[in-house]
């Protein structure tokens, strides 16, 4: 093959090779983006969902929450005005003592929008109301429900939905469809839940214990300014609170401090410990945190699990697969030689040739790849009858510095390998 025929494809290959390499690398830069983009979108959607749920869920500790004087979205001034228009006398109690004082004059409706603000020792004020009274509670804690009403939250939604009454309670029948379906209740002990009347898909429960009727509503939306005019919310809220000519509104947004302990008189009394009744079978940590927190936690865990599967390494040994394209060995050799030439890497190119020649000569002289260079030189020199210094220079000498030195070194290497195998010397080429 002439020098001109070798030079012609060299330039084309040298220019095409970087472009091919660049085209192969370009898709890999987007692999990580393609992998992370779906998870990033899911994370952003989860964050937005949490923000939306939190912004639409009122906090009972907020002083505006279901307050008869608050005009904001989570206030209940519109409900108070409609009760006044219905002819109901609305008295506001800020403390439990005020509530007890206002409920002694006869049957009364007590509205408790934030029942969790009552201490456990203050629950007796609701049980000691005059006969014929009614208590309306909004989304009380699950533990209080179990203790007071033998109820438990069966499921809870992130936002209130509409539902049909589904019961014969006159107030619910008059209101029709209302936005009550958020907390869904069921009896804690089924054998003791026959006296309860379930409305709105079990999101409103009416129970009578003795002469006092208790209504548990699973959503606060029908009573708040922002949602009172939707569906039958107004008719339901006003109907539940206007059955008595007088109503007491417990407008509490923080727990009252415990009374001081009596001073120790020095007398000892034998006391027995009576454990409190079981309030709830569920984990208190689960009840303490909002359902939206657990929904976000589950979403994050699923996202991390999917990411672990996507980023995880394959279990087991690598699988052997056939190449998509077969490349002739000559093209590989020519390609590597042209890369070496373009980089001016004469030493690297010649060292590759040396390693290949030594690997082919060692079996011919009875040596292995672990043999020391000195032993290799001595054995090859003894076999072909050449001076050891000449053999050492060919196999382990200094690398060539010019193209002509490279050609001469390759000629010497081919001649030495031919002599070891008993063949003829290759024809020497010059520039």
UniProtKB/TrEMBL annotation:
Highest taxon of source: Bacteria
Keyword annotations from UniProtKB, A to Z: Membrane, Transmembrane, Transmembrane helix
Limits of the DUF4350 domain: 71-241
InterPro entries per UniProt: DUF4350 (IPR025646)
Residues spanning the membrane: 33-53, 292-310
Protein name: DUF4350 domain-containing protein
């Amino acid at each position: 093959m002439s020098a001109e025929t070798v030079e012609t494809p060299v330039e084309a290959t040298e220019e095409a090779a970087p472009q091919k390499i660049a085209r192969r690398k370009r898709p890999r830069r987007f692999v990580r983006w393609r992998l992370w983009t779906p998870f990033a979108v899911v994370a952003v959607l989860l964050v937005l969902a949490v923000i939306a749920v939190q912004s639409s869920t009122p906090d009972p500790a907020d002083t505006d929450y279901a307050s008869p004087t608050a005009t904001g979205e989570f206030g209940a001034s519109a409900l108070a005005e409609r009760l006044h228009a219905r002819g109901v006398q609305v008295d506001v109690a800020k403390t439990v003592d005020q509530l007890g004082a206002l409920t002694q004059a006869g049957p009364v409706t007590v509205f408790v929008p934030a029942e969790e603000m009552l201490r456990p020792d203050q629950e007796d004020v609701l049980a000691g109301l005059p006969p014929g009274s009614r208590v309306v509670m909004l989304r009380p804690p699950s533990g209080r429900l179990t203790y007071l009403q033998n109820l438990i939250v069966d499921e809870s939604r992130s936002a209130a939905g509409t539902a049909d009454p589904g019961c014969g309670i006159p107030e619910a029948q008059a209101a029709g469809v209302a936005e009550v379906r958020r907390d869904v209740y069921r009896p804690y002990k089924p054998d003791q839940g026959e006296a309860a009347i379930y409305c709105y898909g079990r999101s409103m429960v009416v129970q009578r214990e003795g002469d006092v009727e208790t209504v548990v509503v699973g959503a606060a939306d029908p009573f708040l300014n922002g949602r009172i005019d939707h569906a039958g919310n107004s008719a339901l809220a006003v109907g539940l609170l206007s059955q008595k000519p007088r109503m007491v509104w417990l407008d509490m947004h923080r727990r009252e401090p415990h009374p001081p302990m009596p001073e120790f008189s020095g007398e000892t009394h034998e006391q027995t410990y009576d454990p409190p009744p079981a309030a709830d079978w569920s984990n208190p940590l689960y009840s303490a945190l909002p359902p939206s927190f657990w929904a976000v936690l589950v979403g994050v865990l699923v996202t991390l699990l999917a990411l672990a599967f996507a980023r995880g390494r394959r279990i087991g040994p690598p699988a052997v697969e056939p190449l998509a394209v077969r490349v002739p060995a000559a093209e590989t050799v020519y390609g590597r030689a042209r890369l070496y030439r373009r980089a001016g890497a004469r030493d690297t190119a010649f060292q590759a040739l040396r390693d290949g020649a030594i690997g082919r000569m060692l079996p011919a002289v009875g040596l292995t790849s672990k043999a020391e260079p000195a032993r290799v030189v001595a054995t090859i020199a003894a076999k072909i009858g050449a001076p050891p210094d000449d053999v050492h220079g060919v196999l382990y000498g200094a690398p060539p510095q010019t193209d002509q030195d490279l050609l001469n070194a390759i000629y010497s290497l081919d001649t030495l390998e031919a002599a070891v195998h008993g063949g003829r010397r290759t024809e020497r080429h010059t520039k």
